[in-house]
Input
Amino acid sequence: MKTEVLLEVKDLKTYFYLDEGILKAVNGVDFSIKKGKTLGLVGESGCGKSVTAQAILNIVPKPGKVEGEILFYKDGSGQPIDLAQLPPFSKEMREIRGAHIAMIFQEPMKAFHPMYTIGNQIMEALLLHVTDDKKQAREITLDMLKRVGISNPQQRIDEYPHQLSGGMRQRAMIAMALCCHPSILIADEPTTALDVTVQAQVLELMRDLQAELGMSVIFITHDLGIIAEMADEVAVMYLGRIVEQCDVETLFYEPVHPYTRALLNSIPKVGTTPRTKLSAIEGTVPVPLNIGKGCGFYSRCKEAKEGLCNTEDPPMVEISPNHFVRCFLNE
Amino acid sequence: MNNNLVLEVKSLKKYFPIKTGFWKKTTGYVKAVDDINLKVYEGQTLGLVGESGCGKTTLGKCILKAIEPTSGSIVFNIGGNLVDVASMDEKELRPIRKNMQMIFQDPYSSLDPRMTILDIIGEPLIVNKIAKGTELVDRVKELMEIVGLDSRYLKRYPHAFSGGQRQRIGIARALATNPKFIVCDEAVSALDVSVRSQILNLLLDLQERFKISYLFISHDLSVIHHVSHWVAVMYVGKIVEMAKTEQLFKNPKHPYTEALLSAIPKPDPRSKIRRIILTGEVANPANPPEGCYFHPRCRFAQDICHKEAPAWREIEENHYVACHFAEQLTLQGVEM
Output
């Protein structure tokens, strides 16, 4: 049985036209989101993963320009809507954003308005997308707050964001994102700012809700441990491109791309011998400003071949079923 | 005191008074550091792990006398002499300060944007009257090379450097006075994953080369595991467990340590570790629970835990814990 595809991203590009030149934040990204599954989007700062999420929701800040196709199969029906073609403030886009595709962020304070109660803000989403009845909206909100494990929801619903702890704010943000039962949730580093025990609680909550609601998730993070736990499929991003894409077990047990392998080797893991040197990746992530042709990882790659890797863009190749790699040396 | 102890902390307390009302009357205390005992050995790293608000940064600052402790002793071994800095004033401390330094978390706010790299790394040399003039410039260049920075960038300003490079500048600055003890307060947390490994390698190198001891404060257990010889786990101002690294990870004796260890997401999709999810929120240091501070969240809590604070004791060689039931509990460690 073929798993239903909800979202198809084709050759997505997001370029920022600056005085200094063109910043290619997202430079040709393809992936699809299947119903009920989690795609992990992993990469370091500046690889373009957050901008990819923004492009999907049509919230890329100026002067960013989005190209490519973002095909959303709204009701699992045949005809997709191309989100890249919808004006950001159009009725159609606003109907999708929040109700069908929702997002949670790293900094819950950024998602909440400091001067409105959290109840007010969650109800706003409900009143926009689900119901006209304020009483009903309040009841749904209370139920959602309870579902996400916020104690004392009757009291908390009328509190302001600053009155909640970091963990609680994150839960409230999850409640706000999920109250309209979106089919796709984009989670952008949702637990990075949280303590490790709170992170464990929030990740478990997300897994439970995902199973309950049959939701798809795009989980964006740089933390490979979280990816191992949450993702079914993983796409590794570097300098605006996906360099490797496969299922999660293959990524950790049979990685192919030099960047993926270097990253996996360089992280401190409990289980490796303490106080031995890590095999760190030399150099730093370049800024994708005015970049020419060639593999983005060339400057830091130990296996790179001059004359090949720095002159041509490596294409994405399916080296085994469902395992895609963008590397000349590993085709 | 052992000859190879570089630092011994006994019964350290730091209480912040809570002042309320118009007359600013003291109505209570935030017990940020609450009766702490620690040992750090020469050339070794003590990892201090705990979650937000547990008091680990305050503890680091107390040890360096960046803030005044409320009570307790902080004894450094400085060239064979035992010196209790806890009760020393600024004047007495000044000649000693060069032996203990700090590396901060945020490479962006910890460097003065209006000072050149030469100024920043050279400042401790000037303040401690260690070098000046050409000798100072030479020493700064040497330090830059040691931490992996190109010494041609001497006259540049911090904004010209990346996060990882700035952290190296902070490390060079900490090394300038040849300290024997450095507090690393979340020194790699703000860095990208690939840069993090570079800086960790550098810190390990420097430790081996110069026999520096670190108090490595972090909330990241994987990093702690990687750099520490010993690990202390902190909860609401108290240390609940302390042991050699492998011991603590394989064989934790305190339920909070067990929960922390099980909470680490492992980069292994086939890992079968049963995760212990703690209920409730972290206790409030201004109003901690009666008895053992951890009892409201502890799945093993009994009557005695509600009433009596557990004593800090050595449960087996080199393994300390504060829990009434440490002998009876079989807790889940991390598979190695």
